[in-house]
Amino acid sequence: MWGDRLSQPLLRKNEKLECVSWDEAFDQISKQFRRLIEAGKTVGVLGSARATNEENYLAGKLARVGLRTNNIDFSYHCLCLPLFEGLEDVCGGRLPATRLNDIASSQVILLLEGNSAETHPRVASSIMKALEHGAHLITIGYRRTQMARLSSLHLFTTPGKEREVICGLLAAVLELHRQEQILAPVRGERYEELWRNFEKVERTKEFRQAAEWVTRAERATFLLACNGGGGDHVRMDAAAFASLAAVTGHLSKTGSGLLPLVAQSNFRGAYDMGVTPKRLPGCERWDDAQARQRLQGLWGSHLPPDQGRLAEDLLQSANGLIVLADDPPAVLPKGEQALAVMENLELLVVLDAFGTRIARQAHALLPIGSFAETDGTVTNMEGRVQRLRAAVSPPGKAKPGWQVLAELCVRFGVGGSFGSAKDVLHEIGLAAPQYAEVEQRLADNEWSTAVVENVDGARYSVPAPEGIVAGLSSARSSHVLVSEGSFDWGRDPLVMFSPTLNRDYWSERKLFPRGFVEMCQRDADALKVSVGNRVRLRSAHGEVVVPIKVCGDLKPGVLSVPYAFREELAGVLGRGSVTAVSIEAL
Amino acid sequence: MTYTIEKRAVREWLQKLLGTGEVIAPVRGPCGDVLFSTVHLPDEVLWNFENSLPPPKQLVLPQTDTLLKINRNGDRYEIEPTYDDARRFLLNVRSCDAKGIAFVTRMHEMEPADASYLRRVANLTIITLSCKVPCPSGFCVCTGSGPFLSDSYDLQLTELDESYLVEVGSEKGDSALSSAPSLFRVATEYQVSQRKELEIETKKHFGEETCHFASAMRRISTGRVQDSLWEEMSEWCLGCGGCNLICPTCYCFSVKDLGNDGAWTRCRMWDSCQYAAFTLEASGHNPRADRKQRMKRRFFHKASAQYYQRDCAVGCVGCGRCIKVCLGATNMPAVIGAIRKGKWND
Hints:
The complex is a heterodimer of chains A (586) and B (346). Chain A is α/β, with parallel strands linked by helices and 586 residues long. Chain A contains 24 helices and 21 strands. In chain A, helix 2 (53-66) runs parallel beside helix 17 (401-411) and helix 2 crosses helix 18. Chain A is globular, with a radius of gyration of 24 Å. Chain B has two domains: 2-62 and 83-203, no CATH class; 213-250 and 273-341, no CATH class. In chain B, the strands form two sheets. Chain B has an eight-stranded mixed sheet, sandwiched between helices. A four-stranded antiparallel sheet of chain B has the order 5-4-12-11, with no helix packed on it. Classes of the chains: A alpha/beta (586), B alpha+beta (346).
């Protein structure tokens, strides 16, 4: 039913992909990779946030033991990296998480919006349940989204200026602590230092109201959308937001917590499995001596000594690449560029269920089962390991991904014998301490088990306040263009190949094949343009001509482009996700 | 005619039915949930269970329903309709779900009648198991679709002390008994009165969910529901379509040609009127682009007098599934209540 399923191993021979046996494919792949490695060329592996934990774990092991490199990453990680670094500054190594049930029973929810009702309906559902029980929802964002419309308090910002609001809230919280002698989690000299830095930050009536609610709540959850976009401001926004959770005492309290809202279903699993150059399985730093020793003992092999490259960098520099169910052109901000550089790869091996765009460029194409055709586990955003059972067999000669990777591991001399997905999970339990009991807990027909606990109260640290306040500026421009979200709905393989799900996408592309920008009615009236009329946008980076759509959620001066059309507007956006623009009607 | 069958004889009867056709009944899924599924042994069938989350509607209206085969033959196309004529028994279906199937069948019987659907239903024998314990979120008493039925079944079973009372509602029901006539005895007057008492007693134990369709119908059918109310309610909907997919009376579909170059099957697939693209036109125009318009349409179809006259029933059987699955707060009792009172969240 889903188009373009891959069902045969294929090898490129004389510029054409030809059907081959699995053995021939494995032989060729291992032979050619060996040749590259012996020639000292750069090789690496891309895992995926839509592959299972078992697949990702084996992909990581294949890279670090088989290919002797830390060049292991996944595309979506690049997109969220600044956000995670910001959270890491405050929370330490592991990604913080909050259970959906905790959100539903929160008294206060602080939501730094993307558009969570669209991107994370399960989270939005928990927020609604909390609202029904009388919770206060505070939203921060430049768009009056569905959640903003349901909120008790919506704090409008200009895109890129979210930190002004967060710092205003921090200042209001610290002020409340000072005025009412509340036993705050941050005390003494540390508090005084914070207060000195935030004393002069503007505090509005709304900020004080929000601070009052958050400070006095027994249970409060902090939800942070991942809007993509690189640069320090995303990292600082995230650090400031996590600091707010920490300063109000909700970061480490049972029933409270912080949850980053990322796209793609097994993001947390891929991160936990060490599918990033900076982390080993279990989220420990790649250069942590103790963790390295433990893994070396388990894997019976020395770990590569050099730091690996991130996906974006790896694509530019690699000669040989194994890609597991990842699709850089659909995920990365510069997707088309990624596709173009991948054409130059000497050896590209793709493991996927679908004929993605990079699959068409592959030198070897290995068909694997989709989520419904494989056993395994995924770790959802709240840190719950969920079990997948194969409901149907993969089509044709396709095999479950863990099996293909296990066979590749054998060809590359990687130790371990994996007869089933369960065997892989068993080894994950040995490699990643927090997964130690997962196998046992899932054994008795349980479908899920939690592996993420609250951030350890003793471990988090509020960064130096200048790190949060720095760069706040009051400079305003007439219009700001923002690239919205971090998920290309129409190009994600699970959506693109589904005839039902892709209609929304096609409807947009059908009317606006080269993209559009959204603006409010007032801006459209001022420019004397209506839906479909073209405008010229100019920024420091360049200019583009693009049609407009009118949207009631935006304020005057804000122009928004969906992530799907980021490349059509790359000329004005530059590398970031927010830029000042001037606009004229054509 | 009304019969009884000893509980211990049921196994033998099911064995006979299994020899006559496919038996679909509630079974325990791998994680403990209840599902309607084909059974191979009588012991797999559940007799004491909370109703399944997906209704057995998919038996008459499969999620992907092949209607035609299309083959290219040179420069010609050959089209061949496909029919599903398998004989099936749907066993231990709850009253609300039997009413749901009756509702969907009435719709497909209207001109132009849907031959594909009707042939499948013609071979289906519906054996209901009346509910002695109401579901926690059920409100079938408000929609006349339970806990016991007076129509819409071929056989209705009611659990008595040591036996099941078997009410025959159609010739198909009679024929399902004829495979093992010796197992059934004509019910005594006492046994028939026991069933009536059970029905009265069960109705006393319904939960708090109520759904006053009559007064909502008056308002919704006469344009008295303000657009602002639809807008306010639609803020509490996340547009997931879950309510449609688990509703025993929803039948919205879209049509797809699946297959490869030269050979296709034309399929009817479930769809949701709550999805933005459901009413999207080829031009790109969408007459119901806003969620409030889609929501208004859904509840107009479910509860307006116009549709009541056409369908002889409201488009709800009170199963309470939408209360369980709604990610937001716009389940049937909540919305009908708001329409009736003219305000949301009072």
